[in-house]
Amino acid sequence: MRFDIVTIFPEFFAGPLDYGIVRRARESALIDVRVQDLRAFTHDRHRTVDDRPFGGGEGMVLKPEPLFEAVESLLGEAVSTEPAPPTPAIPSAATPSRTAVILLSASGKLFRQSAARRLTGLDRVVLLCGRYEGVDERVAQHLATEELSIGDFVLSGGELAAALVIDAVTRLLPGALGNEASALHESFSDLQSGAPQRDQPRNPDGISPSSEPTGDPLSDSQSLLLEFPHYTRPADFRGWTVPEILLGGNHEEIRRWRHRMALEKTCRNRPDLLIGKTRARI
């Protein structure tokens, strides 16, 4: 099984992949892990991978071009350039059937043991490590086959998450463990047999920055929602355009649009977070 990691910090993986089960799996050729420097897929002298978000806001957003080029270089095929449909896109038909392109993001679906077991059935997994404030939403919609989060908290980037995914998947591969029965009697293994899932502690502040109550439902429910989609330059990338509202400069309209998009993304990826106060406000 092959893992490709796309990151702006390739040197990060010199340590986490050189120990324990993952190291032994690499040495025995059970897995092949290759690290790709995202900056190698830029075309300016500053090797720029990020830009300011449309609509304003804090931080920087990873640009779509280098991520698309990196994945297309790895897979040897171009992602479809058809204009975006009105609903979130289905993964590109150009992606090989036994390959997953995973965007690691705090806004993704929760990575569970069932997901790790599902990934063992693939030949190849490409892991996209987010950084800064986020990743241009067109990467999630038109490049990644899925968007995953390792928990209800925010990391500085996806590198740690990528290492965790590789470890979780590798130890489930036949031959990775000395005793194959070990993986059948661990935490979360009962989820595979349909046993009731244990309640997990939640930290709403890890999903999106919280703020003091303002009396405005749009503002006060933000702490229970996934983060809204981000977009940066170019405004038109392969026919996928930035939502017009982000270009108009009306901050109140942008705030309301972002809240609505955050609600939609939470409904799609983490509906469990909408139980209680936030669900009552929808």
Task: Give a concise summary.
The protein is of the alpha/beta class and 282 residues long. The protein has eight helices and ten strands.
Can you walk me through this structure?
With 282 residues, this protein is α/β, with parallel strands linked by helices. The protein has helices at 20-27, 64-75, 113-119, 137-142, 159-170, 217-220, 251-269, 277-281, and strands spanning 2-7, 32-37, 50-51, 61-62, 99-110, 124-129, 134-135, 146-149, 236-237, 240-241. The longest helix is centred in the last third of the chain and has 19 residues, at 251-269.
Task: List the SSEs and their pairings.
Layout: E1 2-7, H1 20-27, E2 32-37, E3 50-51, E4 61-62, H2 64-75, E5 99-110, H3 113-119, E6 124-129, E7 134-135, H4 137-142, E8 146-149, H5 159-170, H6 217-220, E9 236-237, E10 240-241, H7 251-269, H8 277-281
Parallel strand pairs: 1-2, 1-6, 4-7, 5-6, 5-8
Antiparallel strand pairs: 3-4, 9-10
List keywords for this structure.
5-stranded parallel β-sheet; alpha/beta; disordered C terminus; globular; 10 strands
| Discrete helix count | 8
Count the beta strands: 10
**Distance, first to last CA:** 43 Å
Radius of gyration: 19 Å
Low-confidence segments, given as residue ranges, are 81-91, 190-223, 277-282
Helix content: 25-40%
Can you list the strand order of the major beta sheet? 2-1-6-5-8
Biggest β-sheet: count, sense, barrel? 5 strands, parallel
Based on Cα principal axes, name the global outline: globular
**Broad structural category:** alpha/beta
